[in-house]
Amino acid sequence: MLALSGSVLVRLGGIPNPSAVQPPGTAGLYTILNWVAWLVTLLCVLGVLLVAGKMAVAHRRGEGSEAVASLGWVLGGCVLAASSAQIVNVLL
Fold first, then answer.
1. Which of 18, 24, 39, 72 has its CA 20 to 30 A from that of 54?
2. Which is it for the CA torsion 4, 7, 12, 16, positive or negative?
């Protein structure tokens, strides 16, 4: 089925493949977005490490798994941050 749909797309003109040319005047914005992306990645890693430390301390004290919910929220934020560019592309 996939091969059939691929051949139909080729007959209809193919899948558009836009060039990856940066619009003029956006070099500064692109640099800022790169810095923000690196900062968000660093914060995600830091968040996971902090929750892991919290879970280790809770385990040492013999407490329950209250920190597991925190890990879920942090990982959810990481997934949202990692997929933000694709979400914006879909909405635009």
1. 39
2. positive
Q: How many CB atoms lie within 10 A of CB 65?
A: 10
Per-domain residue ranges for the chain?
39-92
Give how far Cα 24 sits from Cα of 28, 29, 69, Å: 10, 11, 45
Is the whole model's pTM more than 0.85, yes or no?
no
- The most distant pair of C-alpha atoms in the chain lies apart, rounded to whole Å, by 66
Task: Walk along the chain (92 residues) and give the pLDDT tens digit of each residue.
Answer: 555 555 655 566 666 676 777 778 888 888 888 888 889 989 999 999 998 888 888 888 887 677 788 888 899 999 988 888 788 777 76
Cβ atoms < 10 Å from Cβ of 27: 10
Cβ contacts of residue 66 below 8 Å, gap of 6+? Answer: 58
